[in-house]
Hints:
- By secondary structure, the chain is an alpha+beta fold.
- It has three helices and 16 strands.
- It has helices at 5-29, 34-52, 132-135, and strands at 2-3, 54-55, 66-68, 73-83, 89-98, 105-107, 112-120, 138-144, 150-157, 164-166, 173-174, 179-183, 187-193, 198-199, 206-207, 213-216.
Amino acid sequence: MRIHREGIKIIPIAFFFLAVLDALVYFFLKEYLIFYFLMVASLVLAALIVFFFRVPNRKIELNETHVLAPADGDIVAIEPLYEKDYFKDERIQVSIFMSPLNVHQNRAPVSGEVVYVHHKNGRFYPAFIAKSSEENERCSTVFKMKDGTQILSRQIAGAVARRIANYKKPGDFVVQGQEYGFIRFGSRVDVFLPADAKINVSLHQKSIGGKTILATL
Length: 217
């Protein structure tokens, strides 16, 4: 396991502010019982910050007929719908809700060329509710496989998440399971599949990014 590049930037800043707060608590409250509770809380918070930015080592099994989960989390929606932003046709949407305790690295669901990246500003509704897909800030990335099949993965900010990182641009080639982005704190990823894809997951199932097979093409 390693620390994500986003964490390398954020963790030192977070630890600096925690150290300042701990110093103030020590100076003003060291003679009171609450001092010990606050020190324990500070240690727990520091551990959670590091835990949030973890990146586990995973062996990815490449398969051109499989669409892999782009994120860790819970499957909160599986439904046919009209995708109006890019495809403008009927697709199957599979949505993954990422809680603050999940790994927040996003992985390419298939191997192929990145043909579309579009960031859109929006609101910050809780990511587990349906309207977050339409109204929240989001970034859509389309991966085009060598047979022409296109898969859209949409990163969606949540009520707490305020930064969507996407490291790819049109023309880049990605290998299935390779990191392409990151979302800080609770968030959501929607995957738009061809209407004839065979869905291999069920509602409320846990997904593992780069491991769980969402669908078979």
